[in-house]
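Hey L., structure's done. Input below.
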Amino acid sequence: MLRTLREKPSFRGWRFGIWLSVASAAVVLIVNLSVTIWALASSVTTDGDNRRELLRSSCPEVKRVNTAGHVVINALSTILLSASNYSMQCLASPSRKQVDGAHKKQRWVNIGTHSLRNFRLTARSALRFWLWFLLLMSSLPLHLL
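Output:
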């Protein structure tokens, strides 16, 4: 069924998930930029070189702050990975119409997984594939680091 121009797009189901993923990625970006700007503004240069000092305190205090910082970094990267993974699954998933078309041709598709096979069978595969590939390449450093 075709939508008229007056109808608002439905933000239920996977569309809501995509918008939630975009919003969470934007929040992670804003938090990262804010912390970076704060760290550059509040740190001091030591010994005339380019190294900066964020905190000068006792070892237990520095260890506690370091651990807290790493917990926050891990939480933000987990949010970003979750958003990326969900978006990649949506890009790789065929629609009901595409599944029916594949079944008529006696072909199968993967549902709910990242599958390169689906890109060969779905329409608009080039755009969907390259978006999926960009998300994959941007997510790899988070997995590895």
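Strands lie at 44-45, 52-53. The radius of gyration is 22 Å.

-- N.
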